[in-house]
Design a protein that fits this description.
Structural class: alpha/beta
Distance between the termini: 35 Å
Number of domains: 1
Radius of gyration: 19 Å
CATH architecture: 3-Layer(aba) Sandwich
Shape: globular
Oligomer: single chain
CATH class: Alpha Beta
Order of helices and strands: EHEHEHEHEEHEEEHEEHEEHH
CATH superfamily: NAD(P)-binding Rossmann-like Domain
Strand content: 15-25%
């Protein structure tokens, strides 16, 4: 297949590029904003035709959650309108699309892991635009897979793991939220799931993917410092109310992965094991 990968300079996009080296049966077209403006429908159509694209892996997104509260129009453009352009263009060629979404489509008031059929109710601009993107992709491309994920990190870009490692070395004390619960997702593991879908008969639908296990941001930070060997920084638990942000975060963001495991027969590592792997890479 000819596979278009958008957002190739982001956390997931970088991991997809790395894994593509071990999947040489396909031809990949890696793009970021410099190579393709996905908000330009004509540019999308032109590239699809020129490269004879069979499948799109859309890793591009507006992910500045707090900034989106004051810039929802731009977030809507990148998270909803542009994915719709990609989905329509590849569907016209009879192709398929894998689109990355988020736990923010839920309001976070549950107490058991979210299954794919639970009612959606985003409480932030970011969540609203990502939900609109899901719906645009599904409406335009019958052969689409939506992958909802949460708490993404990697050795690349800006993320919680790298921030905690940096601040742990710079500060004697650090406050981290303890009453928001979820599961970290190592981008390399998510990329493996993407390729597992590509290498099998694609079953369209919405799927959840994060690593196994459950933790809080506070316990995640403690684990990061433990694995990184940071012992000079005291991590203090904070309530969400003590750290107000423009966007409301889901208090509970645990995703049920039963559907993707049963459909694609994939093994999902525990978050702590994957965190260890990432930190070992960062410390090389």
């Amino acid at each position: 297949m000819n596979i278009l990968v958008t957002g190739c300079k982001g956390q997931l996009g970088r991991e997809v590029q790395r894994l593509a080296l071990s999947h040489p049966t396909h031809h990949y077209i890696f793009t970021d904003v410099e190579e393709l403006d996905i908000t330009d429908a004509n540019a999308v159509d032109t590239l699809m035709e020129r490269e004879a694209v069979d499948c799109v892996i859309n890793c591009a997104a507006y992910t500045a959650v707090d900034r989106a509260e004051g810039d929802e129009a731009k977030a809507q453009l990148l998270n909803a309108t542009a994915p719709g352009f990609l989905a329509r263009a590849v569907a016209q060629r009879g192709g398929a699309m894998i689109h990355i979404s988020t736990d923010y489509v839920f309001d976070g008031t549950a107490h058991t892991p979210y299954t794919e059929d639970r009612p959606v109710c985003p409480v932030s601009a970011y969540g609203r635009t990502k939900l609109a993107g899901e719906r645009a992709v599904v409406a335009a491309c019958p052969r689409s897979v939506i992958l909802r994920t949460a708490w993404l990190y990697s050795p690349y870009g800006n993320n919680f793991v790298k921030t905690m490692m940096r601040l742990g070395c710079e500060r004697d004390e650090l406050g981290v939220i303890f009453d928001q619960i979820g599961t970290p997702t190592y981008a390399a593991d998510l990329a493996k799931a993407v390729f597992a879908i590509l290498e099998q008969d694609m079953v369209p639908g919405i799927y959840h993917y994060s690593n196994e296990g459950v933790t809080s941001w506070y316990d995640f930070a403690l684990a990061i410092h433990r694995l990184a060997g940071i012992v000079t920084c005291y991590v203090r638990p904070l309530r969400t109310a003590e750290y107000p942000t423009p966007a409301v975060r889901p208090a509970y963001a645990v995703l049920d992965k039963t559907k993707i495991k049963n459909t694609y027969h994939i093994h999902i590592p525990h978050w702590y094991d994957s965190l260890r792997e990432c930190i070992e890479i960062l410390q090389k």
